[in-house]
Design brief:
mainly beta; globular
C-alpha cells in the first residue's frame, strides 16, 4: 500500500494512492496519528485525481529525523579529501549518527532553498527513509524490521562548507537549513518491500544521472541501524530514519558540482517512486 499526505485546498489529509488517483482516508489528518492508530483505516469516496491535489511530505515526525552518515563505503571514500585529520579515516565500527529537525522537511514539488549569500556549496544526497511503526527499545537486529511501518525517499540536502568547517566540524547546521529535507512522494508499507537491502537508488540532476547504486551496498543495513539507534533509546511510531547516501554526490566530483537555482533534482528508489524538487532563490 502507498500512503500519502495531500492538500486539495482545505489543509492536509491522508490517503491511499491507487494508480493515478488518491482515495482520501476518513478521520485522518496527520500520518503520525494514522501510524499510531494501527489498523482500521477507512477510505472515503470519491477518488481524487493527482492533478486536483498537491502532494505534501508524507510524514512530519514529532521529533528530529535520525540520520546515518558514511553508510556506503564508496561515499566514505569519495569524501576523504574533505575530511579533517580529526575525523575518522576508516569506516567506524558503529554508524555515524546525527539529526535533522522536522521544520526542514518539504514535500514533492516544493522548492529547495538556495543558501546564498551564506554559501554556494549546495549538494544532494538520495537516501532510503525508514518509518517506524512499532515502539521499541533495545531492539535486536533479528527483530528490527518488525518495527518498521514503511519506506519513503529522502534528500539529505547539505551545505558542504558549513557542514565541514563551521561550528567545530559538527554536521548539524550544514544539514539543517530550511527546506533541506525533501521527503516523499509517499510511504510504501513494508509488506511491499520485505527486504530493504535490494533496492536500486539513483539521483538525476537536470536529467543526468549522478548517483546510481543499490541499498545492498549499505555498510550498516536497516536492521542494524534500528538496533543501534534503539540501544537505550525508545523508538516511537512515526519516527523517521534516513539511512545514508551512495557515491556520486556533488562534493565528491572533480571539480565539485554544486546545485544552483533552476536545477531539478530527481531521486528514485526502486519500488517506491520518484521524488522531484527544484532549487530556487528567495524561498
Amino acid at each position: 500500500m502507498k500512503l500519502c499526505t495531500f492538500d486539495e485546498g482545505e489543509g492536509p489529509l491522508t490517503g491511499v494512492v491507487e494508480g493515478d488517483t488518491i482515495l482520501p482516508l476518513r478521520d485522518t489528518v496527520a500520518m503520525v496519528d494514522l501510524i499510531q492508530r494501527g489498523a482500521g483505516w477507512t477510505p472515503a469516496a470519491p477518488a481524487l485525481p493527482f492533478h486536483a491535489v498537491r502532494l505534501l511530505a508524507p510524514i512530519v515526525p514529532k521529533r528530529n529525523v535520525f540520520c546515518v552518515g558514511w553508510n556506503y563505503a564508496e561515499h566514505f571514500a569519495e569524501g576523504k579529501d574533505f575530511r579533517p585529520a580529526s575525523a575518522p579515516q576508516e569506516i567506524p565500527d558503529h554508524p555515524a549518527l546525527f539529526s535533522k529537525n522536522p521544520f526542514a522537511i518539504i514535500g514533492p514539488g516544493a522548492a529547495i532553498r538556495y543558501p546564498a549569500p551564506i554559501s554556494e556549496q549546495l549538494d544532494y544526497e538520495v537516501e532510503l527513509a525508514v518509518v517506524i511503526g512499532r515502539e521499541g527499545r533495545d531492539i535486536g537486529e533479528g527483530d528490527a524490521l518488525d518495527h518498521v511501518f514503511g519506506y519513503t525517499i529522502a534528500n539529505d540536502v547539505s551545505v558542504r562548507d558549513v557542514q565541514r568547517s563551521w561550528h567545530g566540524g559538527q554536521w548539524f547546521k550544514g544539514k539543517n537549513f530550511d527546506t533541506h529535507l525533501p521527503l516523499g512522494p509517499w510511504i510504501v508499507t513494508k509488506d511491499e518491500i520485505p527486504d530493504p537491502q535490494t533496492l536500486r537508488i539513483t539521483t538525476r540532476v537536470n536529467g543526468v544521472t549522478k548517483q546510481d547504486s543499490n541499498t545492498k551496498h549499505m555498510v550498516f543495513p536497516v536492521a542494524r541501524i534500528i538496533a543501534e539507534l534503539s540501544a537505550g533509546l525508545t523508538l516511537r511510531p512515526g519516527d523517521v530514519i534516513i539511512t545514508g547516501t551512495p557515491e556520486g554526490v556533488g562534493m565528491g566530483r572533480k571539480p565539485p558540482e554544486w546545485l544552483k537555482p533552476g536545477d531539478t533534482v530527481e531521486l528514485e528508489i526502486e519500488r517506491i517512486g520518484v521524488l522531484r524538487n527544484e532549487v530556487a532563490e528567495g524561498v
